Amino acid sequence: DIQMTQSPSTLSASVGDRVTITCRASQSISKWLAWYQQKPGKAPKLLIYTTSSLESGVPSRFSGSASGTEFTLTISSLQPDDFATYYCQQYNAYPLTFGGGTKVEIK
Amino acid sequence: EVQLVESGGGLIQPGGSLRLSCAASGFSVSSIYMSWFRQAPGKGLEWVSVIYNGGATDYADSVKGRFTVSRDNFKNTLYLQMNSLRAEDTALYYCAKTSIVGYSYFDSWGQGSLVTVSS
């Protein structure tokens, strides 16, 4: 199985900050990575797919990139609505696997 | 508008069985990949099973042999039959659909159905 190691597990930031979350795959997954946002009591919401493609309706302050097996989600200017938990998910192969999550908290 | 609505969760004793349903609208469950995911209390997301558009299925090792995914194309509903339930199966179960056949990222999710396995 492909392991996804996500860091940090918790991140404290202020509105307006630039935030970066990293996910490292245990082997090559090409560009087959998605990012989700989850708020308490809610289902995950797709933000980005295929490493860097923005899902329709998602604000442009969210972006994704990759270098080898390291993938990054960047929020260019953190907004109040962005405080949530973020997960990466690889879909290069089944079983699908997720990173452990990054909780973005208010500083 | 795409909508997924899960039902069927509840409190069940270890060793028992439960069937979850996921009623879909706005698309056909047979035209896309459909998956079940789960999230234990306070934990992260875990993939459980998939049914491909062609009808083939796949499962996480943790549920293989105990869970069965199926669909009713006429009712446009996805199911997860869960047998031999264990305490570690306690979780919020989500159904979700892929955006495109062949690419397993999930653009629509249900609200979840809570399964609690306890004596």
Count interface residues per chain for the largest interface.
A-B, 23 and 21 residues
Strand residues, percent of chain B: over 45%
Please estimate the helix content of chain B.
under 10%
Shape assignment of chain B: globular
Low-confidence stretches of chain B: none
The termini of chain B sit apart by: 40 Å
Query: Radius of gyration of chain B over alpha carbons?
Result: 13 Å
Question: Can you give the mean pLDDT of chain A?
Answer: 97
Note the main sheet of chain B.
7 strands, mixed
Radius of gyration of chain A: 13 Å
Distance between the termini of chain A: 36 Å
- Sketch the topology of chain A as an H/E string, one letter per element: EEEEEEEEEEE
Q: SSE string of chain B, helix = H, strand = E?
A: EEEEEEEEEEE
Plain-language structure description:
Chain A contains no helices and eleven strands. Chain A has 107 residues and is mainly beta. With 119 residues, chain B is an all-beta fold. In chain B, strands 2, 4, 5, 6, 9, 10 and 11 form a seven-stranded mixed β-sheet that branches. A four-stranded antiparallel β-sheet of chain B has the order 1-3-8-7, with no helix packed on it. In chain B, a hairpin with a 5-residue loop joins strand 4 (34-39) and strand 5 (45-51). The model of chain B has no long low-confidence stretch (mean pLDDT 97). Chain B is globular and about 40 Å long. The interface between A and B is medium-sized, with 23 and 21 residues.
